[in-house]
Amino acid sequence: MGDLEKILSVLGEARHRMVRIALVLGPLFGFLVTFRLVPFTLRLFGRPLPLAYPYPDLFGNVTAQVFRAMVASMLPSDVQLLNVGVGDSIMVQMEIGFLLTLMFGMPWIVHEVGAFLVPALRRNERELLRRIGIPATVLFAIGTALGLFVLTPLTFRLLFRYVAAMGLEPVIGVQQFVTFALLYSIAFGVVFELPVFVYTLTRLGVVKAAAWRKHWRIAVIGALFFGMIITPDNSGITMLMIAVPMIGLYLGGAYFAGRWERRSPKPPFLACGG
Predict the structure, then answer these.
(1) CB-based contact 207:260 (threshold 8 Å)
(2) Residue 36 is inside which H or E element, if any?
(3) Where are the alpha helices (DSSP H) in the chain?
(4) Which of 25, 38, 136, 171 has its CA 20 to 30 A from that of 129?
(5) Where along the chain do its domains lie?
(6) How far apart are CA 91 and CA 247, in angstroms?
(7) Quick one: which H or E segment has residue 55?
(8) What is the pLDDT of residue 52?
(9) Taking the model in full, what pTM does it have?
(10) CA of 178: how far to CAs of 42, 74, 96, 110, in Å?
(11) Phi, psi at residue 33, to the nearest 5°?
(12) How far apart are CA 204 and CA 200, in angstroms?
């Protein structure tokens, strides 16, 4: 098989995997924007069990329900939300729908991406991929949940205290609110992947564990820069709330990478860096 045939074969396989992902994520997104969840209680062995069933509702759909829950849990009660643009409410539902689709569909995405990459990986790389798959997914979920339910509400309360101190009206646009909340939460999910990234590079022999410890100052600067870029506001507060956990996670990843390297029966096959 020539190089052109190999490239076309890889592209065909990539297209096949993307179609399989779309066949799952497309209906899931469609459900989120066209159905709402109606709660009911089922008594099981004498105990109440809260459940919900889907009901068609184009306007009060799942994304709208999630939006109302976000407002109630994240914003101080005196903050007024404004629909500034004509289509802001629609865009908000789309953004929430995309995020929920990504979160619920992540196991299927990981499965398809792994199936695409496995044939090109060595045996030890395939073993490593299987080993880090679950921790990476769990860490992303923990980071996103921590950002969504803890740090984002804390950030809003802190920022609006500054608004109150200036004697200004606590007002925010609906799309600005949702974009900030979602980007901030996803950023924490990405940050929580850092230990997996550090550990994986050491397991593959790309970077020695000592290099992570040696270049910690560069990691601190990189964390501050990442926090500045990823946060959608101009305050240094949100930057630090991203950067500080990121530095801690980097050091944690360096620790586990070093522990594995000390216990490894043989040196990494591509060891380079120092």
Answers:
(1) no
(2) strand 35-44
(3) 3-34, 62-74, 88-117, 123-146, 152-165, 174-191, 194-203, 209-214, 216-230, 236-263
(4) 25
(5) 3-192, 193-274
(6) 34
(7) strand 47-56
(8) 92
(9) 0.74
(10) 33, 10, 8, 26
(11) -100, 0
(12) 6
Nearest by Cα to 30 from 101, 91, 99: 101
DSSP, res 6:
H
CA gap 19, 12 in Å, rounded: 11
C-alpha angle 222-228-232 in degrees, rounded to nearest 5:
145
Give the position of tokens 């949702």: 178
* pLDDT tens per residue across span 231-264: 655 567 777 877 888 899 899 888 888 888 887 7
Q: Does residue 100 have a pLDDT over 60?
A: yes
What is residue 108's three-state secondary structure?
helix
Looking at 116-125, 130-139, 162-171, 193-202, which range is the least confident one? 116-125
Q: Does residue 234 come out as left (phi exceeding 0), alpha (psi in the -120 to 50 range) or beta?
A: alpha
Percent of the chain at pLDDT > 90 equals 22
Give the length of the chain.
274
Q: What is the largest CA-CA distance in the chain?
A: 72
| Both structure tokens of 255 | 């620790």
